[in-house]
């Protein structure tokens, strides 16, 4: 098939690689402009552009797609059968969605209609779901509201972080699209409408969401730590100073101490009473320090039993 691919981050790379490997004719790769990144503010190209250049594919990097007549006219001249969109990073206007003869296809990181929106992977962990997956869908002008063509589910492991689930899902997404390509080529007659009554929304993650409420159960707090790793990272306060919490585990024990109380500090970590159950904080990051196991941190810093975490 003649395909225009639109994607930007690492999540999009396996899908573009699959389309190349399967012998599809990738007419152009549309990605976000190169941006300054990191401490040195070095201008870096998106991961998708790196892959496209490796295969000498034409790359387009419009600042804005909406209202961009030059871009619209250019992709019309390419006459694509389909556009594949994976984490591109801009909302596409209807004028663009109407260009390919077989439609615009998106890989969404949830089993729609659950978790429409910007952060489905994080929220599936935060909500302690046991299963998630990807949906191959037709794009329309709404936010993840288009017809569904194909779904592929996958388990969420109890130890999964946002990063680990993201890295598994980008592979599953590419595989799901590979399996759906014959259906797309044949016109997608298997497509089905979403039940809007079953829809839930995965709003953008804000930094403030990271603050730990010790009244919650150890399960809920552990899910927060995993779902917000590596960004924005769950945090609490020790003696008024913010402390990032990178890794935790749980025990079913309870004590009579108030939620947030440090009841033990040992090689395993910091044992903290929650609203229900004990949470063991295993890895932390103090201000202006590297992240490190609690067992390392306490060699040069004191964490006192009996202290309350939080503001």
Automatic annotation (TrEMBL):
Keyword Ubl conjugation: no
CC annotations in GO: cytosol
Family annotation (InterPro entries): Fmt, Formyl_trans_C, Formyl_trans_C_sf, Formyl_transf_N, Formyl_transf_N_sf, Formyl_transferase-like_C_sf, GART_AS, Met-tRNA-FMT_C
Ranges of residues in domain Formyl transferase C-terminal: 205-301
Chain residues that bind (6S)-5,6,7,8-tetrahydrofolate: 110-113
Keywords, alphabetical: Protein biosynthesis, Transferase
Entry GO MF terms: methionyl-tRNA formyltransferase activity
EC supergroup of this enzyme: transferase
Domain spans labelled Formyl transferase N-terminal: 1-180
EC number, as in UniProt: 2.1.2.9
Catalytic reaction(s) noted: L-methionyl-tRNA(fMet) + (6R)-10-formyltetrahydrofolate = N-formyl-L-methionyl-tRNA(fMet) + (6S)-5,6,7,8-tetrahydrofolate + H(+)
SUPFAM superfamilies: FMT C-terminal domain-like, Formyltransferase
Family: Belongs to the Fmt family.
Task of the protein: Attaches a formyl group to the free amino group of methionyl-tRNA(fMet). The formyl group appears to play a dual role in the initiator identity of N-formylmethionyl-tRNA by promoting its recognition by IF2 and preventing the misappropriation of this tRNA by the elongation apparatus.
HAMAP family, sorted: Formyl_trans
UniProt name for this protein: Methionyl-tRNA formyltransferase
Organism: Holtiella tumoricola
Gene: fmt
């Amino acid at each position: 098939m003649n395909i225009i691919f639109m994607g930007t981050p690492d999540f999009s790379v396996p899908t573009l690689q699959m389309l190349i490997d399967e012998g599809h004719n990738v007419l152009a790769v549309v990605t976000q402009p190169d941006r300054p990144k990191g401490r040195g503010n070095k201008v870096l190209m998106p991961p998708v552009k790196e892959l496209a250049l490796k295969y000498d594919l034409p790359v387009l990097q419009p600042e804005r797609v909406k209202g961009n007549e030059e871009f619209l006219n250019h992709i019309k001249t390419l006459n694509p059968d389909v556009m594949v969109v994976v984490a591109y990073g801009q909302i596409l206007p209807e004028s663009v969605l109407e260009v390919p003869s077989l439609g615009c296809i998106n890989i969404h990181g949830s089993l729609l209609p659950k978790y429409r929106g910007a952060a489905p992977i994080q929220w599936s962990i935060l909500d302690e779901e046991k299963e998630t997956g990807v949906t191959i869908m037709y794009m329309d002008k709404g936010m993840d509201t288009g017809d569904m063509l194909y779904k592929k589910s996958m388990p969420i492991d109890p130890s999964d972080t946002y990063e680990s689930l993201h890295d598994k899902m980008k592979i599953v997404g590419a595989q799901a699209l590979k399996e759906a390509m014959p259906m797309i080529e044949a016109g997608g007659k298997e497509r089905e409408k979403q039940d809007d009554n079953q829809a839930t929304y995965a709003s953008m993650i804000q930094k403030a969401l990271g603050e730990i409420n010790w009244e919650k159960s150890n399960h809920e707090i552990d899910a927060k730590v995993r779902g917000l790793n590596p960004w924005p990272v769950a945090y609490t306060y020790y003696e008024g100073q913010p402390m990032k919490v990178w890794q935790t585990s749980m025990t079913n024990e309870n004590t009579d101490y108030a939620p947030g109380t440090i009841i033990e500090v040992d090689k395993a970590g910091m044992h903290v009473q929650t609203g229900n159950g004990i949470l063991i904080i295993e890895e932390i990051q103090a201000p202006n320090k590297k992240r490190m196991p609690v067992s390392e941190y306490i060699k040069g810093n004191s964490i006192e039993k009996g202290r309350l975490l939080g503001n």
